[in-house]
Amino acid sequence: MRTLQRAVRSKNTGGEPIPPVFKCFKDMDIVVRRSELTLIAGTPGAGKSSLALALVAHAKMPTFYLSADTNAHTMSMRMYSMLTGKTQAEAEQIISNNPEDVSHLFESECAEIRWSFDSTPSLADLDDEIQGFETKFGISPSIIVIDNLMDLAIDGHEEFSGMRQAMKELKYLARDTNAAVIILHHTKEGFTGTPCQPRAAVQGMVNQIPALILTIGQEIIDEDNYMCVAPVKNRYGRADASGKTFVRLAFDPASMQLKDITSD
User: Fold this and answer.
1) In the predicted model, is pLDDT for residue 5 greater than 90?
2) Domain spanning 12-259: CATH superfamily
3) Residue 145: what pLDDT?
4) Angle CA 92–93–96, to nearest 5
5) Domain range summary for the chain, segments of one domain joined by +
6) Exposure winner among 79, 88, 145, 195, fewest CB in 10 A?
7) Other CB atoms closer than 10 Å to residue 7's CB: what's the count?
8) What count of Cα atoms within 13 Å lies in the side-chain half-sphere of residue 23?
9) Residue 9: pLDDT above 80?
10) What is the pLDDT of residues 37-69, one digit of tens each?
């Protein structure tokens, strides 16, 4: 049992924001917080993994990334592209021809991130991974990424009830570790996005638990590509459940570059 007086004097009170990555997120009160769940939702190919990877690559915090949806080779290409601006096609050749140089780059730029590429992990597997992280480094991860929710194996539940149970367990994990838990999830493709889909498009009725839900989509304006991010639920700031209020990030999928839009 704790008092709020004691909580505010603690270094880890829960709810602390991770370092801001994008100015437009800060301007829209889109803040990923520790001890809370953040859900990033979109249709296949919308860029969920790209956004999550950008958040953890630039946050420079101890991170555990569960990549059930993407294999190690593809994730290595994506990370190399994000760090260097090379296209993923170029990254694949460089990784093949100069693996030692790439390894040194990863060691210097993203050594805080540890990975699991188990394709069908259970919640028990996730717990084992987090305990292993804590044993190796002496601390809990500050950020935990689940990529994605539908790949978590939940025994004894049908699909949607399993996802809801997983969300409850992940909320406990966030509070227990004081980590910002970022969960990637699918939306229903039948919902129109303009370009971001509404909160109602999130699959599985899992909207109740996350503190922050972002739906994402892409649009092209004058041949420039953008990732659009809508806070459809935001316990700590502005939100619009319709998805019609969003921010834009300049996005080049080929080179994994995701940046604030700057005026010339």
Assistant:
1) no
2) P-loop containing nucleotide triphosphate hydrolases (3.40.50.300)
3) 98
4) 85
5) 12-259
6) 88
7) 12
8) 5
9) no
10) 999 999 999 999 999 999 999 999 999 999 999
